[in-house]
Amino acid sequence: MSIAPLVSATSDFEAKVRALMPDDVFATVTASYLEEPRGRYAGTAGLLAKPRTTEQVATLVAAAHAAGVAVIPYGGGTGLVGGQIAEDGVPPLILSLERMTALRSMHAEEGVMVVEAGMILADVQSHARAEGLMFPLSLASEGSARVGGVLSTNAGGVNVLRYGNARDLCLGLEVVMPDGTIWNGLTRLRKNNTGYDLRHLMIGAEGTLGIITAACLRLHPEPASEGTAFMAVRDPRAALSLLAMTQKRMGGGVSAFELIHKQGLDFLSETLPDVRQPFAEKPEWMVLIDVGLAQGLNPASALEALFSEASEAGLVSDGVIAQSQSQRQQFWALRENIPEANRRIGSVSSHDISVPLSAIPAFIERGNQAIAQLGSFRVNCFGHVGDGNLHYNVFPVDGKSRADHEHQREDIKRTVHDLVHDMGGSVSAEHGVGRLKVADLERYSDPVKLTTMRAIKDALDPKGIMNPGAVLAR
Amino acid sequence: MSIAPLVSATSDFEAKVRALMPDDVFATVTASYLEEPRGRYAGTAGLLAKPRTTEQVATLVAAAHAAGVAVIPYGGGTGLVGGQIAEDGVPPLILSLERMTALRSMHAEEGVMVVEAGMILADVQSHARAEGLMFPLSLASEGSARVGGVLSTNAGGVNVLRYGNARDLCLGLEVVMPDGTIWNGLTRLRKNNTGYDLRHLMIGAEGTLGIITAACLRLHPEPASEGTAFMAVRDPRAALSLLAMTQKRMGGGVSAFELIHKQGLDFLSETLPDVRQPFAEKPEWMVLIDVGLAQGLNPASALEALFSEASEAGLVSDGVIAQSQSQRQQFWALRENIPEANRRIGSVSSHDISVPLSAIPAFIERGNQAIAQLGSFRVNCFGHVGDGNLHYNVFPVDGKSRADHEHQREDIKRTVHDLVHDMGGSVSAEHGVGRLKVADLERYSDPVKLTTMRAIKDALDPKGIMNPGAVLAR
After folding, report:
1. Top-level CATH class of A225-422?
2. What is the pLDDT of residues B427-470, one digit of tens each?
3. Among A435, A464, B20, B414, which residue's CB has the most CB atoms within a 10 Å radius?
4. Which residue of A has its CA nearest to B209?
């Protein structure tokens, strides 16, 4: 199929759409819309629209569809793979959802809320808390990330183990399709087997199949009581055994299970010395365990009993259990500060990967060997071990900088990604494909999957206007 | 788009495919392949193939694709909406997965198993149990239903509240696409954001977009201890309040929460008098609660504490808590015998519907009023109230038979479905669309959803050979 070249969103097109809605829908493109957190992509300025209603989004997309203008959906701008940045040079329509932040309806008795796509994730959490409920999706950028982006990238975070990814917390969607029609799929239903699941197709499509304008989100009851512990584990294999033991004991109450390597603790000491370290002597490996339990259980006691059993089994050598809410927060602060410490050190190459759970120990071992063969580096491997999702990040040794290794970045990335693929893993566990991993997707994906994705893209967006260049090459 | 008429699977086509593989792949079409449990559809005999490998499935589908022959994927034959029966008169290729029953691999330490699509659901459960794990999908037909069908229809059952539908228990798929290519998506990953989620598109597509040949299934740890109770509730609204209270107390440990109406208990007395009734006097409404809890809790005590709180709140008037494993089974036997009692009574019209949780009381009230206006009937309303999924079944009064009301069936169905739709519900909560509800889907679906489904179907199966007439009219 041959696709017509994209048309500029300026002059003719701009005049046409300005005539269709109030002038203040449009705004000047400031630098923030052309940048992304890792500074890898520089966007092309075009026409910036900040619609207030789904109908305005639909009108804008219909016009872009008619004219062949690229549409770049823009949420909180926190994506880490360049999905929010068009850099191909043809001025696009940047369509920001930032004004569509309404709570459309709250159904606390159902554990459901309907929100517009521009609502910030932290605000979703607050609305839920106000009803004595929780929206469990939690990630570092939750103060800026918006619902539409979170769903479009099927975001993960620390509570996936218990509550699932973004897709598992969404019951229904409203989407403006690539031709400007509106799919009203805002169902509040838990069970609904009426045809193809378009919701799951749109979630994770990174804005290439339509623009999510509203979502029906699933809330959960707060656990009756919560507890947190650090435990020093012998090695990653012991961490997996401890995970199985924890899940067996806690009856589904394991909310998070995070693996942390000594390198992360060293980076914290180096860059953020005020962060309290849990152990006098840093262990090689440790896990952060968070549980939320039923009434009648004391989480600290349950974690102590777990520690005893794990200790007898030779899985853990040391442990600290939070004795208060503030201590829990302190424990979590350590985990949450690791990405900031990483930023301050400056990685040569970062990898958001997943492998089958049982392959984790071998992956870490083989990865470290392969990196060592490429030169002297420090590896900080940490992450959501219960999901098989590791952030495997490679740093220069002390005295060197990332600039010294710029020429090796591609080699390192390729080495890690080849290994991940070889072990049945994924080169994008939770961040998505965006523009950063389009070539990786082509390299590592099953060819039938790629053909099928392309067929779906061409069927729903025949002009290729929706977030062109993201996920699939245009 | 105009589609060529289907071609018969006999004579020419049969000769061609017989030349491609061992003769014993093919078998005589017996009656069982042309019938379905409710006896509503009579299939057209064609060519029956029982391949042993994915490659044979692929070869057969590729040949059908080239020739324009319809392919009817056949699993356990337990579907309730005619999805497994081609009745349009052109002899199809009936492709039964019954010989592909292998356990390809077990990864107990990951909570994962890879099975072929022909494995019977009860066998999946056994394999999991043998490893001290559980596959929580549980439904009446589990002794005959096969994995491919269970996934293709996104089956539900009694444990959806805690563990999700079939789609939530599947990590990866192997699918023969409509052109005979094989998509190898058998990943064991918990997190994988690499492009469009084809897995979720195939699950619930009822064989119209490809044939699932193998699946990677997610297993769960058995809860440390389990408990079951019947509680008599004031009304459906009280049942919902009790559900919220139970979830709040049990920290995610509620495995099932089933609503049962007195009518179901009366049907049991009438048709299966040996089934033990829990209460001396049958309550108007009751719930069956099943919990699986963490170590350190006694489920019977936890349920007693729940009953006390609920009693004080005026939600429940009576309760019995299982004191042993065999009593738990007895309690469940009552629930599981309700469909059999229904069959013996003989419904005029059955409805597998869902509505938003908070709409359940109003739906039951309005439904009963509407049915009463159509004549004298008995309504047995029961189901998975925690999922908003009710089986709302309409029966003749004593002394009348379903045949007496045959002429009213369509009216009754329409009345119930219109009401469901009006209340934001779904006319197919867990059974799927099949051939039975194609017109309902057209009537009640969002038009943009239908257009999008059609575009996807045409893109992936341009000749319309895959299970033609199911889900979408050909």
Report:
1. alpha beta
2. 999 999 999 999 999 999 999 999 999 999 999 999 999 999 99
3. A435
4. A196
